[in-house]
Design brief:
22 strands; alpha+beta; binds adenosine monophosphate; five-stranded parallel beta sheet; Dna Ligase, domain 1; binds glycine
């Protein structure tokens, strides 16, 4: 099967590695990919927001399956673009329709969907310029902390947790009246703060059935001990020890099943990954957000734990036959540690040579590339998040130590990574071993 994968991060390197292992794959193209994905297929220089260019490439290369890594093309309707074209509609498409992707693309859409289907989430109200004064009053009177969310996509930056009413009102004004996050914050969801521990749960769905993938926890803050600025993710672990069978049963019954049934009932086309950003409040799961894709860096721990042929699963998803397949999961723990550029998540420089990549990392470790590029035989940094080093272990502690040991031998100017990924679970034995 001739496959095109869109994206260029650590998530896409993990997907490319797994897709390339499949008996179905021949060949794999990655657009635009990074210096790591060239080990799994052929990188193609394509702008993933240019739907016409993607379509032309698919026709000229006789692509049979397209897998979309990041949310942006999905939220902008790449699926619908393919389905509307006689030449493209038969291509197996992994990713939801524009409507389905609104679960991530519009917080207000997601909230209304959850309300319609009785899915547990934080209480909220939404405001825009038409009810701005009412919103100011609402925000001022709201219990603290209060959560303000830009309705649209804001590159992971559109959520502000405010600890004083003064801050909340001023941020609210900036978002709606000064378009702090551009068009994305012309509408704002004001939400109650939920106190608990977060985790990421994933399914692959065909719009009717779903397969529950291994869960993960990511570490969003830049500093050790979860301090400092929010990032795209500094590391992740899977499995998550507090995701016990009892807790996951609640997640499936109260959240996953009503979500998939809701998509089906509402006639929303959804064949792809669905990511539930959850929070565990005293043992009860609530939805913080939906994403219409795999997580990054969660993919770098979840994908290595999948033993089943991923392309086979994708084919079953496109045929709405996921109820006929079984997922096999590696029982080992998996931990990824992200190496980032100096200055990230603020300003950083790119173009530094990465050394130490050629050494054999062993069978227990994968070095997934994120922001990297290859120029004249050298591998250079090309983003904030540079490498995601994932290892297996008999528990989280062993897996984390393995990744750190490999990172010891890797260098680029200004390299930084957290040495405490999975810290709260290190004294516990993973429930799966
Ligand atoms: P999001 O962009 O929706 O992923 O939100 C970013 C982060 O804000 C989440 O990962 C949570 O840590 C936090 N957050 C969002 N909504 C809430 C909430 N209602 N209560 C507590 N924390 C929240
Ligand atoms: N790691 C969180 C995300 O991918 O959105």
């Amino acid at each position: 099967m001739r496959i095109l994968l869109l994206g260029s991060g650590g998530r896409e390197h993990a997907l490319a590695w797994k897709i390339n292992e499949s008996v179905w794959t021949n060949p794999l193209y990655i657009a635009p990919g990074n210096a790591g994905t060239v080990q799994c297929g052929k990188n193609i220089s394509l702008d993933i927001t240019d739907f016409d260019a993607i379509g032309k490439f698919c026709i000229s290369e006789k692509i049979e399956m397209i897998v979309v890594g990041p949310e942006e093309p999905l939220v902008n309707g790449l699926y619908d673009h393919f389905k509307a074209s006689d030449d493209l509609q038969k291509i197996y498409f992994i990713g939801p329709s524009k409507n389905g992707a609104q679960l991530e693309g519009s917080k207000a859409f997601a909230k209304a969907f959850m309300k319609r289907h009785n899915i547990p989430t934080a209480r909220h109200q939404e405001f825009d310029s038409s009810n701005f004064e009412e919103g100011v009053h609402y925000v001022k009177e709201h219990a603290l902390p209060v959560v303000l969310k830009a309705d649209g996509l804001a590159a992971g930056k559109g959520v502000i947790i405010c600890h004083t009413s003064v801050e909340a009102v001023s941020e609210f004004e900036l978002m709606i009246q000064k378009a702090k996050f551009g068009e994305a914050s012309r509408k704002v969801v004001v939400e109650e703060f939920l106190n608990g521990i977060e985790l990421s749960v994933f399914v692959l769905t065909d719009g009717k059935n779903y397969l529950l993938l291994p869960e993960a926890k990511d570490y969003k803050r830049i500093g050790e001990g979860d301090t400092g600025l929010n990032t795209g993710g500094m590391g992740a672990v899977s499995p998550v020890p507090f995701a016990t069978p009892g807790f996951m049963h609640k997640v499936e019954e109260r959240i996953i099943k009503p979500t998939i049934a809701g998509l089906h009932e509402e006639g929303i086309d959804y064949k792809g990954f669905l990511f539930f950003g959850l929070i565990n409040v005293n043992g009860e799961p609530f939805v913080i957000e939906y994403n219409c894709r795999m997580g990054d860096p969660e993919a770098e721990v979840v994908i290595p734990r999948l033993e089943t042929d991923l392309v086979g699963l994708f084919v079953a998803a496109t045929q709405q036959e996921l109820d006929t397949v079984k997922l096999r999961v590696d029982e080992r723990s998996s931990v990824t540690v992200m190496a980032v550029s100096h200055g990230y998540p603020g300003n950083y420089e790119k173009g530094f040579e990465i050394t130490g990549l050629k050494k054999d990392a062993g069978k227990e470790t994968f070095i997934f590339h994120a922001g990297t590029k290859q120029i004249e035989g050298k591998i250079l940094t090309n983003g904030g998040r540079v490498l995601s080093v994932s290892s297996y272990g008999k528990n989280i502690s062993e897996a984390a130590d393995r990744s750190l040991k490999i990172l010891d031998g890797i260098d680029f100017e200004g390299i930084y990574y957290r040495t405490d990924i999975g810290y709260e679970f290190k004294s516990q034995i993973s429930r799966n071993v």
